[in-house]
Amino acid sequence: MTKRYIFSIANNGHDREDWVHFSNRSKIMAAEKWGAEYILHTDVLGLVKAHLKSKSGYFEKFEMLRMCDGDVFFTDTDVVISANCPNPFETLANDCLHASWESEVLVKSRYYEELWPQTLARYLSLNNNFWPTVDGTDCPVFFNSGVLYIPDNVRRVILANLDSIQNFIDRQRDNGFLQFADQEIFNVFANKFSEQGLFGLSRLGSEWNVQVSLEWKALRGKYFWERFRKFRYWRNQAYWCSDARLSEEAYCIHYTGKSRGQLIPEWQAVHEPRWEMK
Predict the structure, then answer these.
(1) Which residues contact 210 (CB under 8 A, 6 or more apart)?
(2) Closest Cα to residue 24, out of 277, 267, 210, 269?
(3) Quick check: 27 and 38 in contact, CB under 8 A?
(4) Average pLDDT of the chain, as a whole number
């Protein structure tokens, strides 16, 4: 049987954060339930070539694949795996990269309709002025990299192309394109390899990556209407409400940014009791 890995990366000292401790506990339990090995790596950047380290801190999601000789279920350190989460190693196809299509839900917000032109411009700069968009909008189609299922077949394709990924990052940095992150680079190559027929892309349902955000508590904007648009956006995202993230249908709950502190009481009140019942 192909080896199974649950993997998280805690560079920048995140492994010492309390919310990481509780996130880890869910992954330890999931690994035992699914017959997988759980790895929390705190120095993946130590594997990155020295010249790249000075130009990019965003190569680690590729480097982790060197360390796993099998199927990989990757979750960020601010993700809790629910006790109700089905086994990805047995329920998801082994010929596709699996991730949630973030713009599928975010496009529903008028605020993101107004924000996307900036994001799209950055994506176009990374991909020779072409990027697929959601029908009828200027919102780029992209996958959230906080929860990924990477079967061994897909892992091998990415490993075989690491040099081209490294060269791409180098060129972007040398050309002054500094405003990109690991998620954007991952999307560039996920789309590229899919278009080349090297592997498929499969959209996970939103229940696999339920976003929790309290960013609206610290919204900024010079003018009132800028702050109001942002508040309206965060308020209207239904899948960020407590009913969504604490429901039986929420498989992986992603506490982003300022919401990470919320992970701790919700682990103790909701997630841990459900795991203990399994």
Answers:
(1) 239, 244, 245, 250, 251, 252, 253, 254
(2) 267
(3) yes
(4) 80
Rg, the chain, Cα only? 19
Least confident of 46-50, 63-67, 152-156, 159-163: 46-50
- Cβ contact 245:210 at 8 Å: yes
Edge-first strand listing for the sheet containing 210-212: 79-81, 252-255, 210-212
Which residue type, as a one-letter code, is found at position 4? R
Closest alpha carbon to 147 in 82, 192, 196: 82
Q: Model's pTM, two decimal places?
A: 0.85
Cα–Cα distance, 29 to 169 (Å, whole number) = 36
Question: Residue for token digits 């109700």?
Answer: 84
d(CA 100, CA 61): 16
Q: Using CA atoms, how far apart are residues 110 and 234, in angstroms rounded to an integer? A: 11
Nearest to 65 by CA among 83, 89, 48, 84: 48
Confidence of residue 73 (pLDDT cuts 50, 70, 90): very high
Average pLDDT over residues 26-41: 96
User: CA nearest 72: which of 193, 157, 12, 164?
Assistant: 157
